[in-house]
Amino acid sequence: MNPFNEEEFLRDKARALSSGLFIRLDEFVNDFPGGAPGDLITLVKSFLKEIDSQLDSTSNKKVLWGYFYLIEELSRSLDWLDNAHTAQTPRGLVQLLEEIASTLHPDSKLLVAPTREINYSIIDLIPYYIELAEDSLSAKSSHPLLASLPKQLYLVRFPRVERENILNHATFGHEFGHPIADEFIEAQEQKPEYARRLERLAQSIQSDDDLKLELEEEGGDEVTRSKLLTGLVDQAREIYRRALEELASDCVGVCLFGPSALFASLDSHLQSSLDEAPSDPEYYPPSRFRLRLMTQMVRDQGYIDAMTAMSLPPGLEDVRAAVLNLFRYLDGIAANTADEDSLQNDPLVRIAYDWVRETLSQAIQHAKDRLSSMCYSSSVAQSELPTLLERIAVDVPPNEVGQWPKLRPANWRSAILASWLTAITASSDTARTAAERAKRIKTIQKLALKGIEYALLQRKYLNFKQHQG
Amino acid sequence: MSVIGKGGIDELLSAPDPQNRLFITPMLHPMQVGGASIDVRLGFDFVTVKRGNIGLLDSAKPVGQRERFRTSHHLNIKEGFYLHPNEMALGSTLEYIRLPLSVAAYVTSRSKWGRLGLVIATATAIHPGFAGTITLELVNHGNVPIVLYPGDRLAQLILNDARQAVAYSGPLAKQTGPYPAAPGETTQADDDDREFWYPPQTG
């Protein structure tokens, strides 16, 4: 019997782990005959084949442990694939996300999956896999593994508990905003004015009475003082960056989804303090600040006027009253300036937000330019909403407008907005019991989801017929 | 009770009052409206039974944990569903249908599929006022597997006049996919009579 050989032991374990992961991936085959989940499975399998081919050629324990770590990392993909694009993921949601991504990020692929967390997120997985390949397999960019990667593979996650609530999925407008906001911030950081603005930021910190005192009391010698100042500048820059990211993303949400983005954000904003100042580590802007900005944007883009002026069919007048009541409520929130007081109370936050106010309009303009034809418009809303509201009122999905035989697919954003307006009206109907209202809202969500699926399918079918001649 | 022909169907589809309008959506192709029927397509969702998880279906017993014996299948465009000989699966129409109170309907196979051995519905009546997708009970009575694709024009609706109807509000109302009912699932009327018809349940 040979003595125990740690390298062989590790090699066997790594191979068993790799084989286990390979089989688990194969088990997904029933769920995913193709599409982005199939692409991810192929990618992870390629990694595993590469690891297997390298396992025999090394006897370095560190490298063998590295393969262990790599397979463990790759097994995270199982979590991402779980229930992606299955019956657990609404088809209408996948379709609308693909519709947005096809314009904003052509050639990208989307992996849409539920998560147990009450959180929406979009993350590009490609940088993660590139880093794994480069660090753990020493792969160069010409390596077949890297050469075959799609441009972007976005992992899109939504709260599983909210699966059918397509109305709240308008939150994805904000999530699509993050890469756009990042583009703006990164471009800004390359400009010479940015360095000058940082200098001004440092001056503002040094001339603020409270911060000056902090620097003097804790600064000690010049080197320590300089380090402290750099730390404060970095923190202010982070507050600025995070504010711009979130606020510009909110505006992208409104551009993409119209007022539905604002309505979908109410859940998260109203459940926390409206006036909490940005704090480490996320530095979220105060909710009241965000609601004020989005409400203003909705107003500036003409949606409130459109909903006031839209010609409603008989029996649906209460929709207008309910939605205008909601905007009165939001105006009340916006008129209160307690959030501004919170921002002023912390000197570093105040200085960072002075900078935010200088730049925010440029960030919003960048977002609008970037979205261009993807933006929803109040004129489309005004023309389509009455018919769609009428359809929902008789329990029919809000997917088309016009008159038989000249029906045409509605804009899917109108389908969501009409559903939101009906849901807001149902919530305001205190003549019904809470259980009746909940049942009605559930029906509205189902109709909305079907309406989106149908509208996108009809659009695709029309394009096909046009190409067919 | 008379069957409604093409002219009547067109009138119903374009009725100005939505309460009196016939909705069949999305009607992707105008040729779906025939002389006295409307072709409807197969949708994207299917439900099959996990036989290993269920002993029997007994209408005397309430159904618990229905998800244990059902599997949902969700197809994309161009993906096929394989229905094997003697297999039953639930599907649904692609189209969402809302009948006005003046119209009843029944759903039946298109003959092309019937000749292959495919039965698409056994409970074929659609009540006035019904709104939702129609659940199809797909059974392959042929000898070879049949591949079904979303969008296949499997079935047709025949519409009839109805008089003094009350709107349907049963469990199938406003469904947007296959509805897998079970025999132990009851309506209010069934509940009132349970003790009369069924043996006492223990445990």
Task: Provide an overview of this structure.
Chain A folds into 3 domains: 6-163, no CATH class; 175-295 and 317-372, no CATH class; 379-468, no CATH class. Helices cover 70% and strands 6% of the residues of chain A. Chain A has helices at residues 6-27, 35-55, 61-74, 76-81, 91-104, 126-137, 144-147, 172-189, 192-207, 209-219, 222-257, 259-270, 287-300, 303-309, 317-335, 338-345, 347-371, 378-393, 412-428, 434-468; strands spanning 108-115, 121-124, 152-159, 400-403, 406-409. In chain A, the strands form 2 sheets. Chain A has a 3-stranded mixed sheet. In chain A, strands 4-5 form a two-stranded antiparallel ribbon. Chain A starts with 5 loop residues before the first helix and ends with a helix. With 203 residues, chain B is mainly beta. Chain B has one domain: Deoxyuridine triphosphatase (dUTPase) (Deoxyuridine 5'-Triphosphate Nucleotidohydrolase, Chain A, Distorted Sandwich). Chain B is 11% helix and 32% strand. Chain B has helices spanning 6-13, 111-114, 188-197, and strands spanning 23-25, 38-41, 45-49, 70-74, 81-83, 88-98, 103-109, 118-119, 125-126, 131-140, 146-148, 153-161. Chain B is globular, with a radius of gyration of 18 Å. The interface between A and B is medium-sized, with 31 and 25 residues.
